[in-house]
Design brief:
Blueprint (H helix, E strand, L loop, with lengths): L4 E5 L17 E2 L2 E2 H11 L4 E6 L10 E4 L4 H10 L6 E6 L7 H10 L6 E7 L5 E4 L2 E5 L6 E10 H8 L3 H6 L4 H6 L4 E5 L10 H22 L3
Parallel strand pairs: 1-4, 1-6, 4-5, 7-11
Antiparallel strand pairs: 2-3, 6-10, 7-10, 8-9
The structure holds cytidine-5'-monophosphate.
Cytidine-5'-monophosphate binds next to α2.
Length: about 230
């Protein structure tokens, strides 16, 4: 099989983070947030990496950079264009710096026969209610609910087909797998860790810093002195 290609979307502004620059380039754990995801893919053996970038920013060494689009899905489409020969692609948000090689491998393994997309997800721990304004309409069955993350692994032709739709359809999609679902494709969830959360607010950034510091301490302890 041709090797899978990671498509990391890093072109968002990250307004809710309140940073002066794009979120993917905010320093977290001593380096731009984006770099942690690049490391996780490489640790899982995924060497071909395309990054959708904000204007004026360069891709990390060894990655292919493309200009991102106005909406997230437009950035995914731009990155996919640079992976024209890929059979399998992994779409990932640079805003999830706590990605691990184990999660990457589990998602790749999840793309079994007859599956169009395998997506990282964590079981929901809160009770989720649907409301009309502030009026509760119903309580959903939590045992069937998953909080969806990235990576989302796709058969590249299936992703290419759904991303060929109108810009307005793409702009309304909050993840890429929903486009596959709407087209009648088969999507599987792959159990992941809640630690692979998306950095959106300043509180998330503080939490990500703490987890990264903990991982670095654990790595240093394993490596031992010297
Ligand atoms: O804004 P949000 O946190 O949902 O963005 C998720 C990911 O999509 C981030 O990594 C962000 O950089 C990326 N993105 C992008 N192009 C956009 C909007 C978001 O690459 N136009």
């Amino acid at each position: 099989m041709r090797e899978p290609v990671a498509l990391i979307v890093a072109a968002g502004r990250g307004e809710r983070l309140g940073s002066s620059g794009p979120k993917a380039f905010v320093v977290c754990g001593g380096r731009p947030m984006l770099d942690w995801s690049v490391d996780a893919f490489r640790a899982a053996g995924v060497e071909r990496i395309v990054v959708a970038l904000p204007q004026g920013y360069a891709a990390p060494d060894g990655c292919i950079g493309v200009n991102g689009g106005a909406e997230r899905s437009h950035s995914v489409r731009a990155a996919l264009t640079a992976a024209a020969d890929a059979a399998v692609v992994l779409v990932h948000d640079a805003a999830r710096p706590l990605l691990t090689a184990d999660i990457v491998r589990a998602c790749l393994d999840g793309l079994g026969d007859g599956v169009d997309a395998a997506i990282a997800a964590a079981p929901v721990t809160d009770t989720i209610k649907e409301a009309d304004g502030h009026d509760v309409v119903r309580t959903l069955d939590r045992s069937r609910l998953w909080a969806i993350q990235t990576p989302q692994v796709f058969r590249a032709p299936a992703l290419r087909d759904v991303l060929a739709q109108d810009d307005a359809v793409l702009a309304a999609a909050t993840d890429d797998a929903s486009l596959i679902e709407a087209a009648g494709g088969t999507v599987r969830v792959v159990p992941s860790s809640r630690e692979n959360f998306k950095v959106t607010t300043p509180e998330d950034l503080r939490l990500a810093e703490l987890v990264l510091a903990e991982r670095l301490r654990a790595d240093a302890a394993t490596a031992g002195p010297g």
